[in-house]
Structure formats: structure tokens, C-alpha cells
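// run 5 | inverse folding | seed 20
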């Protein structure tokens, strides 16, 4: 998926991917790995064009009215002129190797 930001001048962009509660989330440079602890399935979020480090930020999610759970969001913060930004979101089955899946996109 590609998002294009347009405009003049320098801006601060914060791009967040909100993740559900109950996932094991780790930052591996330009790739965030979110693993379901029950099924061992993974979701890789790979920054294709954002040339900055990702930050994992605490947040809350609500699946039921009045109840919140602790969770994380993966956030890339960039400063500069508007540009085209791309990420790959890659599902990984428990029987698959995540490095093999990453090689498919770059």
C-alpha cells in the first residue's frame, strides 16, 4: 500500500499501525513483528520507503464498551517535505519462515 503526502514546506509525519492487545510485538529495525501467542501466526509490518527507526508506543484498545486493554502501536516519525511512503504488511503462517516471506518483497 502506498500513501502520498502532498504540500509545500517541511512537515512532521507520524504514521501509526495500531495493534491489538495480546500480541507479542518486537521491533527489528525497519520491520515490526506482531505474533499471536496462541496460534504463533505473525504479521510483519515492513517500512519500504520510510528511512527512520520505528517506535513502539503504548496505547489502549477497546473491544467491549467500557473495557480497555493495553496494546501497542508501531509509529514511524518523519520530518521533511511530503513524499510517497510505502509499507508491506505480510502475514506469516506458523509453518512459514518470516525471512523467506520478507524476501518476497525486497
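// decoded
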Amino acid at each position: 500500500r502506498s500513501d502520498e503526502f502532498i504540500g509545500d514546506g517541511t512537515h512532521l509525519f507520524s504514521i501509526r499501525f495500531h495493534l491489538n492487545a495480546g500480541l507479542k510485538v518486537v521491533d527489528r529495525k525497519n520491520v515490526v513483528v506482531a505474533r499471536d501467542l496462541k496460534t504463533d501466526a505473525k504479521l510483519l509490518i515492513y517500512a519500504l520507503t520510510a528511512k527512520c527507526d520505528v517506535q513502539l508506543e503504548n496505547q489502549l484498545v477497546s473491544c467491549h464498551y467500557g473495557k480497555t486493554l493495553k496494546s501497542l502501536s508501531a509509529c514511524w516519525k518523519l520530518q521533511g517535505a511530503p513524499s510517497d511512503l510505502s509499507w508491506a504488511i505480510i502475514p506469516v503462517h506458523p509453518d512459514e519462515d518470516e525471512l523467506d516471506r520478507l524476501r518476497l518483497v525486497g
